[in-house]
Each structure stands twice: as structure tokens, then as C-alpha cells.
Design goal:
By secondary structure, the chain is mainly alpha-helical. It is 67% helix and 2% strand. It is globular, with a radius of gyration of 20 Å. One of its GO terms (molecular function) is phospho-N-acetylmuramoyl-pentapeptide-transferase activity.
Length: 352
């Protein structure tokens, strides 16, 4: 527990104070946000706000995690290192996308196809490595069995397991990316989900088969260290939210949103709660589905729309809701979704 607190505190301090310095650097170099002309007109005032804040998010989380281990003398675990590798790789994809936008001064970075292929390749490497590195009890970071609130008896096999991880990572990273449209929205919702992963990791460690063998115990390779990693991300997001809340002084950009989504998917996979990511990240799911519904209906109806604009948060903007009102109400939805996910997780334990 001490290591969890240390990781969260260090990440929060680095993010809180480091973001201020990053804002100055980005503003001096003119690396500002490019606003699409077809978006809500109220967003035009945000043009030029420093972007690529995901740099400090990733740096704070990685540093917090590593320093927590250095200060406590505990060893790094394969599971957490793999998740960190996934986060950094996705962050680099997002950084390249952000860099192209600010250097061209257009809201056109990587094409959708290029971004999806890059994410898929990174996720495939993560999944392929995750089903290796068995410990002395033959546990690998990622299971070959499908997991809901815990590992199920449904065997996937190596190929399907990796394909499933690819789908998870791409869905989560793009889901956070779509939610990152209003000041503080994605950051605040991410904090809640990372906090849930801390609780899940600690609980799985306390009830692990290695400590208290019996019916209902959890067979997860490195649950406590994954809780430390989740704490580092929660701390980093909290510090960043200080500057990202409305009116935002900096945006995380694709650098941050792709990385955070990858972290959520990676933690869900390694903690053996893959399907539980749906309720835990309920807000991201809702926002993503609004885009899917809008796109499908537009094509099927010959140009008609369900929403005034997708993603969903922009629909409410065009209805006249204030940005802060939307963010707070969406945070409430995110909190309720996390509560539902944790409720399902612990309810399963009670039944057992």
C-alpha cells in the first residue's frame, strides 16, 4: 500500500508542476491546438492553446512508477513493464500525429488508416508478449482465457487471444481520444477508472491463490504492482487536470489520449477483467457508440443524422449546454459507470 501512495504522489507532483513548465515551452514554440472549422464555433477561442500535454502525463506516470520501486526496493514486474511499453508506444503514435498537425498548422495529422494500423501493430506486439513470460506458477501476464469480472473457462487460444487484445486496445485508445473534446472531460473520467483498477488490483492481491488458496481466489500474475501502476496514472491525470480543467491551459492531444486508452486496456487485460472494462469505461463506450450510430445512420439514411454532431458531447454543445455543465454531467455518468463496474466485480466475489 505504501508503494501505491508513493507512486501516486510522485506522479501527481511531477504532473502538477511539470505541466506548467511544459505549457511555457509549447507556447514559446507555437505548438498550439488546431481547431476544425466544422466543429462547434465556441471552440475557435481555443485555437493556439498548447497541445501534446500527453508528454507530461506519460513522463509523470512512468517516473512515479519507477521511483516508487526504487524507494521501496521492490522489483519491477513483467506485467507492468509490458503495459508501460504499450503506453509509450501508443504515446509516440499520438505524438507523431500531433506533431504533423502543429507543424502543418492544419487539423490533419496521420490518416485514420495509418493511425489504426499503427495502433493494431503495437497492440499485437503487446498481446503476443503478454501471453509469454510465464512465472514459476505458469501464470503469464495475459491469459489465453477470456475474462469478465475474473478469468472464465472460455479458452481462446493464442491467435484469438492476441486478436482480442488488439480489439481492446484499439477500442479503448480511440474511445478516450473521442472523449477528449471538452476541457478536462477525458482526464477526469480516466482518473475515476484508474482508481477502480487500484481497488481491483489490491483486492486481487489480497485474495490471490498464492496467498489464500481456495475457491474463488484470483490467479493473476502481478496484481499489486499493476495497482501501483494504476496509481501512478491516476496521480498523473489528477495533476494534469489542474491545468486541463476549463478553461484549459493545455490539451493532452493524441499523445495523451491514445496512451491513456492503452493504459486502461492494458490494465484490464493483465488484471483479468477484460469485459469489465466496458462498464468501468462506460462514458468512453457511450461516446464511441454515438460516433458509430451517427456514421451508420448517416450512410443508411442517405445523409440524415441522429445527433446534431458526434461525438456526443458536441451534440449537447449545439443544444446550448455550457461546456462546464456537459463535463460535470458526463463525469457523473463516468462515476456511475465505475461504481457499476466495481459493484459487478465485488458482487461476483460475494456470490462465490
Amino acid at each position: 500500500m505504501r508503494q501505491i501512495l508513493i507512486a501516486a504522489a510522485i506522479a501527481l507532483l511531477i504532473s502538477l508542476f511539470g505541466t506548467r513548465g511544459l505549457i511555457k515551452i509549447l507556447a514559446t514554440r507555437g505548438y498550439g491546438q488546431i481547431i476544425r472549422d466544422d466543429g462547434p464555433s465556441s471552440h475557435h477561442t481555443k485555437r493556439g492553446t498548447p497541445t501534446m500535454g500527453g508528454i507530461i502525463l506519460i513522463t509523470a506516470a512512468v517516473t512515479g512508477y519507477l521511483l516508487a520501486h526504487a524507494l521501496t526496493g521492490n522489483s519491477l514486474t513483467v506485467s507492468a513493464v509490458l503495459v508501460l511499453g504499450l503506453v509509450i508506444a501508443l504515446g509516440l503514435i499520438g505524438f507523431f500525429d500531433d506533431w504533423l498537425k502543429v507543424s502543418r498548422q492544419k487539423s490533419l495529422g496521420l490518416t485514420g488508416k495509418q493511425k489504426l494500423i499503427s495502433q493494431g501493430l503495437v497492440a499485437a506486439v503487446f498481446g503476443s508478449l503478454g501471453i509469454r513470460f510465464a512465472d514459476t506458477t505458469s501464470l503469464t501476464p495475459i491469459s489465453l482465457y477470456l475474462s469478465g469480472v475474473r478469468e472464465t473457462a472460455l479458452y481462446l487460444g493464442a491467435f484469438i487471444a492476441v486478436a482480442w487484445i488488439v480489439l481492446m486496445v484499439m477500442s479503448a485508445s480511440n474511445g478516450v481520444n473521442l472523449a477528449d473534446g471538452l476541457d478536462g472531460l477525458a482526464t477526469g473520467a480516466s482518473v475515476m477508472t484508474f482508481l477502480a483498477f487500484i481497488l481491483i488490483g489490491v483486492w486481487e492481491f489480497g485474495q490471490s491463490c498464492a496467498i489464500s488458496a481456495g475457491s474463488g481466489c484470483y490467479q493473476v500474475r502481478d496484481p499489486l504492482d499493476l495497482a501501483v501502476l494504476a496509481a501512478a496514472f491516476a496521480g498523473a491525470c489528477t495533476g494534469f487536470l489542474w491545468w486541463n480543467a476549463s478553461p484549459a491551459k493545455i490539451f493532452m492531444g493524441d499523445t495523451g489520449s491514445l496512451a491513456l486508452g492503452g493504459a486502461l486496456a492494458g490494465l484490464a487485460a493483465t488484471l483479468r477483467v477484460e469485459l469489465l472494462l466496458i462498464p468501468l469505461g462506460g462514458l468512453f463506450v457511450i461516446i464511441t457508440m454515438s460516433v458509430v450510430i451517427q456514421t451508420l445512420y448517416f450512410k443508411m439514411s442517405g445523409g440524415k443524422r441522429v445527433f446534431k454532431m458526434a461525438p456526443l458531447q458536441h451534440h449537447f454543445e449545439l443544444l446550448g449546454w455550457g461546456e462546464v455543465t456537459i463535463v460535470i454531467r458526463f463525469w457523473i455518468i463516468a462515476g456511475l459507470s465505475v461504481a457499476l463496474g466495481l459493484g459487478l466485480f465485488y458482487a461476483q466475489w460475494v456470490v462465490k
